Amino acid sequence: MKMKRENQDRYYKFSAYLKERFGCRVHKVSIDAGFSCPNKDGKISKDGCVYCDNKAFSFNTRLPARPIEIQIAEGINLGRKRYEAQKFIVYFQAHTNTYGPLDILKKKYDAIRRFDDIVGLSVGTRPDFINEEILDLIESYSKDYEVWIEYGLQSIHNKTLAFINRNHLYEDFLKAVELTRKRNIKICAHVIIGLPHETKEDILETAKELGRLRLDGVKIHPLYIIRGTKLEELLKSGSFTILELEEFAEVATEFLKYLWPNTVIQRITADCPRDLLVGPLWILEKGLVLDSIEKKLAAKDIFQGGSS
Ligand code: SF4
Q1: Residue 158 sits in which domain range?
Q2: Are 105 and 33 in contact (CB under 8 A)?
Q3: Tens digits of per-residue pLDDT, 232-279?
Q4: What's the predicted TM-score (pTM) here?
Q5: What's the CATH code of the domain at 9?
């Protein structure tokens, strides 16, 4: 993998990684494979994470349930037409995609084998719903595909994880990374900047830990508030405030500084349908968000992994 500074980008963009790795335009097809979440269905909690509404996170969850194959076929068509993509990664996105018996997991993941031009499998899950058997299964796809697992972490601070009702600890994430690392599976961590009651120092401690762990990928999300969630209630009660764009860009810039240069930044913005979004409204202007980050990186002469 190339170091970021060789191509002059200030952080290691996923698009650049995909181009290097596959030599063509690759589109990620996100699907809702019909899994549930143990943090919502009562297995560990009925309340879910305070910010959670998968309708906001996942396009396919907003539609009536459809077979996985149809979602993949449509995603591939869209990727070809809109983005001129030639290859595809199927991303099992909605809810907890390792939550089920092994034979059901295999049946769902096997859907990717019915399509040409799929080069990757990416599985999103909670770090406390993984074990050796499930990892064996996921790793088995690495013979034919690049395989990623994305662990929802959000923060390394157990105080924050308790407040947002994650119902797992940072230590669960560390265990999951340890179990996964010895395999041919790439690891991505999903984190959120702007969680209630986290200071800039707290957020940067998360960045430093991720830097220490030298993960393959990180997704950085600005916190946003979805209508009807517990987080909306908390916001209305004045329990916390949301970040302005300038504040987010400032922290995101510093965050990048602490990451390993070879960690691919899979995203640094967020998507949410306008009608579900309470705020901040600036997340809808992705170009502006990316531009603000680039400007701050340039002004401070920061590169991912340090300053020049
Ligand atoms: S773990 Fe994911 S799907 Fe489950 S409640 Fe939290 S955000 Fe929602």
Answers
A1: 4-307
A2: no
A3: 999 999 999 999 999 999 999 999 999 999 999 999 999 899 999 999
A4: 0.95
A5: 3.20.20.70
